[in-house]
Design goal:
alpha/beta; Rossmann fold; 2 domains; 6-stranded parallel β-sheet; globular
């Protein structure tokens, strides 16, 4: 199948959405499908306000039109609600071409956190974007239910997977700090709720691996936390594996792929009992969810690495790709 993916999230951005899409493209290509990725580096861009590492594409209509016409896709998928997503959406509606979308990020909650506007405003914009979609792919049952409560009639479940070859148990000697080592890996932004982790009274050491708009302020506020930026997946995997407990303080993630990457590395997860962690961890023994995040982190230290790794291996990318194909709506259909 010839599949066009038009996305505002792509390399060199470092976030869960990019990792999901890149791994999906790699898996689909290996399965024999032809994939076109239309992404920001192909256009003139400006930095996103308050999030400069995300580039917003400008004057994209002609290039998107040319790219889609030349590629002649069987199916089109729009995973982001940015300028490229809206441009490709207009193209599909103009040409009566069915398309699917995805809800990777709780954009309305992030807008409220940054601006204070009522949730109903950005949710209305999201309903408009996703309304004509043949299917809005959601990474978890809780997100699908949440969207249904906000009036989305076309939301379907589409889980995510983990690259268990890249993320696997390794020596903890990569990080030489007092143990136990409590770690967060991911974007450093206000919506990740990092102070809920960094303010905890925990033994050993705390480490944050990642970058983002809130990093500089948090480094000043929490000078005793160890801050790192990983260069490439191999180094990132070594950081994951070096941890004794992965602490995930976010209350607004749609899924939380980094939790799966920690589990695949043999590292237990501590999190709040909210959507995202509830969908990733479920009823497994691979992590601890508690309204008391400190208690969750200390209790998780007793979980054997093999339990974490075995659980993560159940999230196969081949299975995820097959589900994605089943949810697409090709033109010929």
């Amino acid at each position: 199948m010839r599949i066009a993916i038009v996305t505002d999230a792509w390399h060199p951005q470092r976030n869960g959405v990019v990792r999901v899409l890149a791994t999906l493209v790699e898996t689909l290509t290996r399965m024999g499908h032809q994939i076109l990725v239309v992404e920001p580096s192909q256009f003139a861009t400006i930095p996103c306000p308050s999030y400069p590492e995300i580039r917003l594409s400008l004057l994209a209509a002609k290039k998107v039109d040319r790219a889609l016409r030349q590629f002649a896709p069987d199916a089109i998928h729009l995973p982001t609600e940015g300028p490229l997503g809206w441009t490709a959406r207009r193209w599909c509606l103009k040409h009566a071409f069915p398309f699917t979308t995805a809800y990777h990020t709780k954009f309305p909650h992030y807008v409220r956190a940054r601006t204070g506007v009522p949730l109903s405003w950005p949710y209305a914009l999201m309903r408009r974007f996703h309304g004509p979609s043949a299917a809005v792919m959601c990474p978890s049952p809780s997100v699908r239910r949440e969207l249904a409560q906000w009036g989305f009639a076309n939301a379907v479940e589409w889980s995510h997977g983990v690259d268990a070859d890249t993320f696997h148990p390794q020596s903890k000697d990569f990080v030489d700090l007092p143990r136990p080592l409590f770690m967060y890996v991911g974007r450093v932004a206000v919506e990740k709720n990092l102070p809920a982790f960094l303010e905890l009274d925990l033994p050993g050491s705390k480490m944050v691996v990642g970058d983002g708009p809130a990093r500089a302020a948090l480094m000043k506020r929490f000078p005793h936390t160890h801050w790192r930026i990983a260069n490439g997946d191999q180094e990132l995997s070594r950081y994951f594996a070096a941890a004794d407990c992965f602490v995930f303080p976010s209350r607004t993630d749609t899924f939380g792929l980094v939790m799966l990457e920690a589990l695949a590395s043999g590292v237990p997860v501590a999190a709040f009992p909210v959507p995202g962690p509830q969908d990733v961890l479920g009823q497994s023994a691979a992590g601890v969810m508690d309204t008391d995040l400190r208690h969750a982190a200390l209790t998780a230290l007793d979980i054997p690495p093999a339990v974490c790794r075995d659980y993560a291996l159940g999230f196969s990318w081949d299975k995820v790709a097959q589900q994605f194909l089943a949810l697409l709506h090709p033109l010929c259909a």
